[in-house]
Amino acid sequence: MTFETSVELLKFHNVAYTVYAMIIISVIAWFAYNLTRTEKAKPIVRIPFYLYIGFLVAMGVGHHIFTYNTIPWVSEDIMRHNVTPDKTFKINIANHKFDMEKMEIKKGEKVLFDAHSSDLVYGFGLFRQDGSMISQMQVNPGSKNDLLWTFNECGEFDVRSTEYAGPAGNDMFVKKVVVVTGCDKKGV
Amino acid sequence: MSLIKGTNFDASTLTALQKVTLRAVVMSFLFYGLAALEGTLMRVALVNPSIPPIEGHASHFFSIMTVHPIIGIFGSTYQLVFAAFMFLIPYLTKKPLYSVGLANFVWIMITVGSALAWIAAFVWSYAPLYTLYWPLPADTEQFNVIGGIVFIVGVALIMIGTLGFIYNIYATIFAKVGVHANKTTKELLISGFGIDGLLNLKNKLTGKPPYSKEPALSLPVVAIFRGTVDTFLDALVILGAGILVLVYLLADASGASWDVHAIDALLYKNFFWWGLDLVADGLVLIYVAGSWYLLATLITGQKLFMENVARAALLLELFVSWMVWSHHLLADQGQPEMMKLISGEMVTMFELLTQGLALFITLMTLWKARPLKMTMELKYLLAGLLGFGLAVPAAIIQADMGMNRILHNTQWIIGAHVHIALLTGLYMTLYSVVYVLWPLLTNNTKVFSMKMANMHFWLHLIGSLGMGAFMGMAGLDGMLRRHFYMDGEFQTFMILAAIAAVMMLVAWLIFLINIIMSVGLKGLIGIFLPAKDDTATFGIDPQPSVVAQKK
User: Fold this and answer.
1) How many domains does chain B divide into?
2) ipTM of this model?
3) Can you tell me whether residue B256 is helix, strand or coil?
């Protein structure tokens, strides 16, 4: 199981968290109802204390192991300093303005976005035309801000600052500045 | 029974301790109303940006966004928590509060400080947000210098008030009077940090007699003791950041031009988030766990289930809360990968364990005492448990290098995690505390209307869960948290979130009316008049130190 794009991951996350939310709401509601009843409630399932603790630890650790193995950009991000990108794009940001050229990318290419801020803390976020997010990073002045990304989808994508840098930063939006090609007619 | 006289409330019979507590509670709920109004204005503006008073002005929108957490967290939550604890510590330790005068100083400082921060945003549109990411708060090309100075002075006053609270709490706990007349500082420290609970567990496992059969401090006091350590460190960090910003602003006002890049933005972020996270992950979770334990024992009248485990868990949280700040910096590529992995992911994961334990212990304590009457305090407590049951796993999900890449700074973070944690989890717990303390603080004043109390409960519960959920869903669709969308983006979710926000505002109004009708306007004013009875204890001999000396 691998999530090729953020859309797939977010759909999975949405379903998983909604199911969890329904379960915890139901558990508390069931608990509240039985708390006031005089006749003793029969437990649906008896969970020993140490099993509960083990479950919490397994969920906490297992969640990271799961994402490391199913989300391709995790290992890519950690190992990015040892990877030679297919293309590198420099992005300069100053006075609430992006300075970058149109970025043309082939599907499957490893691309490094190398962003520099000369004044404030900004964000560099890639978005689809429907507003959903592909990826992002913070752009701190005086630090290295490098995002290695492999596009597994085609289309024209926007760049928006994902960090607040004063009211003037609200307009930091560049339409269709990233173009990814190389998919077949079905978009794969 | 009337608007003027209330039900049977008589402010003249209140002690100094009761009055100072109620003063802070009144201010807290007034600030809550202001925060709720601000939140609703922002939610409505995201549906229709041209609606007054924001009228499509980003500077106005972000000014509100800047003061909203200052008013909500400090003006309201800090006041309410500090008031409750400055009453509960004397109540639980059976000792007088160190200083009622200092307690008055605390609520006045926080009230004036919060008001100044609000004025800075309202008058001068000073809007660097609560994150104060360097060098934005010192950006005098975007923000007015005077506004910045007023804002920072306001925050500094809040922190000075906070230090006053901390001194009052520790001076009361360590006072060698009453039941603690013969205790040493070492014994109180061991109990305060939960070390006795850990040693009791160790001795139980090795078959030895318990280290301490009767710990020096009760468990809720341990939680307050432990949480206040984080409150202290957090106050120092925020004060430190405030001084830095103030120095730059004053330099600018004097005509000097200092290089803001002399301060490393990422290092500053680490420093600031280390301190700020002590509020979210240390202070809130520990104070909340302590409040749950107290409420469970008061509601059931029984001992806490697995008390030694709970004490040891508080000790574990001591180390956890100091080492988790990197989960806020998972999208910062300059942050070392090992810090992201260890602090951001692995240590943060322990919060699932500590909060899961607190949830389990509280539920088990209630379960063992069934059947229970579904009182207002029990209802609110269960809702509070639900809030953290939803918000903590949401936090663990986003504190992951894979998920954070697409969730950082989206409405998911501020909706599904922060607002559900604060509005459902924290506030429902605090309302439960209010209902438990109400008869003690008001000398058994009758609540005007239980129907109104129930309406408040359901409107706040559904509103807070609904708003958090719809904001979260918009976040999953890519909506950012610190952006003013003006072209109708994410409209459906924003309409639903705005309806939920209005429900919470109505809930607060119903609560306010119910309280005013209970204590009456005359009683409300009476709370702020000097107390005739200067007693600083509750339910015991007012001078336990004298009793201890005689013994």
Assistant:
1) 1
2) 0.95
3) coil
